[in-house]
Design a protein that fits this description.
By secondary structure, the chain is of the alpha+beta class. It is 21% helix and 32% strand. It has four domains: 145 residues, Alpha-Beta Plaits; 88 residues, Glycinamide Ribonucleotide Synthetase, Chain A, domain 4 (Alpha-Beta Complex), CATH 3.90.600.20; 106 residues, OB fold (Dihydrolipoamide Acetyltransferase, E2P), CATH 2.40.50; 40 residues, no CATH class. It is elongated and about 95 Å long. It binds adenosine-5'-triphosphate.
Length: 418
């Protein structure tokens, strides 16, 4: 049977995955069988989210009446006194997940759904559920059930702190994280931001997570974890997850874009990039007569250097979330670069010729050839960007965004950011 749970934490702390880990322990003790956990990230632009819009799904091989244990954990652990915490749990006890629940899960990663969408499906399929306060968590709980194994192709191993340390500063030895990353990348990713020299596998918030190692291969993830020197942890839980899959992104044309959803759009640059105070870089692209403003925010760091190299006419695929009429860039694929020219002295021997004075022509300083050209020429500009796919720096990456290192062998060059 499957149990989906969501919306138990608040900005003051807690984490739905922590509840999942404690529930897993309790269920394994009670039922005497192994319980597995899935961590399902949903639409990253949802306004009610506390942090990373995570929900969890618990797998138990057989069916049992476990509602009381789940209720007891939610009542004890969820931040029910917080205005923005509205837990929900859904129980699914059948072999195959119905197509409409799978479709609901796919939509929950991309769009904003309403509670009625979830309750109609729960009622329609006669599913048991637990709802606290407004019960908004039922949306994420049902979506966690509908996310299939294929949707969840990566893993995260999370180490949880001892409760006595929750209020203290986390201790993680930075050098050991560098060693863990060096030994296991590219099978693990987003442990470090090497250029920014930042450990990114550990949160800064008050939640119980000490660190989380993400990757494709549980053995490599475990190898990385073993290299990390840190304060002691109380639990270590492996989740199968839809993180790093780009599940939130859908292809679309500009006129189809809807607020709060994530897209990839094939377009041409219609206005060269510009950077505003604060370091955010904008670029305008267009397709079939429609225009789209895109932004690479300052925290995306060196990714902005690539965006700044774009010129009018370049063909690109822009990818990110559409918020307030602007695409917040997560990735950029340069399909085709437009030839660019500037007016300048003619070229000879690979160098710009010297002017002999107004209307007197030009001379090559190497081979001494003289060109009787009155006017300046159109000189081709060397482009500082190559066709291929680029991404934001790891510290600015969304949980759902697929690191380019996972997507090689797709027939085009990739420039992973590490
Ligand atoms: P954490 O990651 O720390 O567990 P969170 O960021 O997941 O917290 P929650 O506290 O779980 O945030 O709140 C997210 C809320 O948004 C939940 O009630 C969930 O049901 C709801 N939600 C998630 N995805 C969608 C969606 N696509 N449409 C509408 N509501 C959603």
């Amino acid at each position: 049977m499957l149990i989906g749970i969501d919306d138990t934490d608040s900005k003051r702390g807690m984490c739905t995955t922590y509840l999942g880990t404690l529930l897993k322990k309790a269920l394994e003790q009670e039922l005497n069988e192994t319980v597995q956990l899935r961590l399902v990230r949903l639409n990253p632009t949802i306004r009610f989210k506390t942090r990373g819009n995570a929900s969890i799904c618990i797998f138990i091989r057989h069916s049992y009446d476990v509602q009381d244990i789940v209720r007891e954990h939610i009542e004890r652990m969820a931040h029910l006194d917080d205005d923005n915490t509205h837990p929900g749990a859904v129980f699914f006890d059948d072999d195959a997940i119905p197509a409409d629940i799978r479709c609901f899960a796919r939509d929950a990663v991309h769009a904003e759904l309403c509670l009625e969408n979830a309750t109609e499906l729960i009622d329609g399929h006669g599913l048991d559920f637990l709802s606290f306060k407004s019960g908004r968590g039922l949306i994420g709980a049902l979506a966690a059930i509908g996310a299939t194994v294929e949707n969840c192709s990566s893993y995260e191993l999370i180490a949880y702190r001892f409760e006595r340390n929750f209020a203290k500063k986390r201790y993680i030895n930075e050098q050991s994280v560098w060693r863990a990353d060096a030994a296991t990348y590219p099978y693990t990713w987003d442990t470090l931001d090497r250029k920014g020299e930042a450990v990114i596998c550990a949160p800064h918030s008050l939640d119980p997570v000490l660190y989380g190692i993400r990757g494709d291969d549980p053995n490599q993830i475990l190898a990385a974890q073993r290299k990390i020197i840190s304060e002691p942890f109380q639990y270590l839980t492996l989740y199968r997850t839809n993180q790093g899959t780009d599940a939130h992104v859908r292809p679309a044309q500009i006129r189809e874009l809807e607020e709060g959803r994530s897209y990839k759009v094939t377009a041409a640059v219609t206005r060269a990039p510009w950077t505003i105070t604060g370091g955010h870089t904008f670029v305008l692209v267009g397709d079939s007569g429609a225009r789209l403003l895109c932004v690479a925010f300052e925290p995306t760091k060196q990714f902005r250097t690539t965006v700044r190299e774009l010129r009018v006419g370049d063909k690109v695929v822009v990818q990110g979330s559409y918020v307030k009429n602007c695409l917040h860039l997560e990735k950029l694929r340069v399909l085709e670069l437009c030839d660019q020219y500037k007016s300048g002295n003619p070229i000879c021997c690979d160098k710009s010729m010297k002017s002999l004075g107004q209307d007197k022509g030009f001379k090559c300083s190497k081979c001494k050839a003289v060109k009787d050209v009155r006017l300046k020429c159109q000189v081709s500009i060397k482009r500082e960007v190559a066709p291929g796919a680029y991404e934001v720096t790891p510290s600015a990456r969304r949980h759902l965004a697929e690191p380019l290192i996972r997507g090689h062998n797709r027939g085009y060059a990739v420039f992973p950011s590490r």
